[in-house]
Amino acid sequence: MNTNTIEQEIAALEQTLLDTVATLAQLKKQRVTTPQVGEYTFTTTNGEVKQLKDFFNGKDDLIVIHNMGKRCSYCTLWADGLNGFTNHLNDRAGFVLISPDSTDVQKQFADERGWKFAVASAEGNSFISDMGFSEEKDGRTYYHPGFSTFRKHPDGSITRVAFDMFGPGDMYCSPWHMFELLHDGTNNWEPKYAY
To answer: Which pLDDT tens digit goes with each residue over 13-43?
Structure first.
């Protein structure tokens, strides 16, 4: 294949990918028929007790990161990356990271990582499982990473608009895509807490 043909094929595939991502986002918003979301009580890293509605911060939309907590270096990679987007995300919607860790563990870890966004614990409520980001198996609770988007309506009710999972190679964490363009690709790379 000559260089022009390769460049044309790349351009065509990139446009197909952009179109597919847009179509996929529309379908994900259609699949979720979550009725009104109930109220849940969370504790933030600064000790405030808040309900889900409080995280909207005056906006109509909310992005909730479902983080597996300190135990997961992959979740840490995603959160570290989102940290740089905090101001942009907060300008468009409310934004909070929620994990099953206790507030003490969260506060220490968020401070160590330099996270600038809101962090809250779902310890003691069913929010994570109700949103489909945990499951019980063999007497243990297994958590899954990802995010949900919510809409607050004029009457104060809240509905979940859409959700997606996080995982290596997804569209939400740019290092994976950069690694894929290296000679050996990801080469079995895994994130670490410190380098």
So the answer is: 888 888 888 888 888 777 765 667 888 999 9
Going by C-alpha positions, the residue among 125, 143, 167, 151 that lies closest to residue 64 is 151
The domain segmentation of the chain, as residue ranges, is: 1-31, 37-180
User: Do residues 50 and 122 make contact, with C-beta atoms less than 8 angstroms apart?
Assistant: no
What share of residues in the chain are helix, strand, coil (percent, to 5)? 40, 25, 40
Task: Summarize pLDDT for 92-111 with one digit per residue, the tens.
Answer: 999 999 999 999 999 999 99
Contact predicate 51/39, CB 8 Å? yes
β-strand pairing of 94-99 with 118-121: parallel
**What is the architecture of the domain spanning 37-180?**
3-Layer(aba) Sandwich (3.40)
How many C-beta atoms surround the C-beta of residue 146 within 10 A? 21
**Cβ-based neighbour number of residue 151 at 10 Å:** 17
130 vs 64: CA distance, rounded Å: 13
Confirm if 64 and 147 have CB atoms less than 8 A apart.
yes
What pLDDT, on the 0 to 100 scale, is given for residue 32?
61
Q: What is the pLDDT of residue 33?
A: 59
> Average per-residue pLDDT in the chain?
92
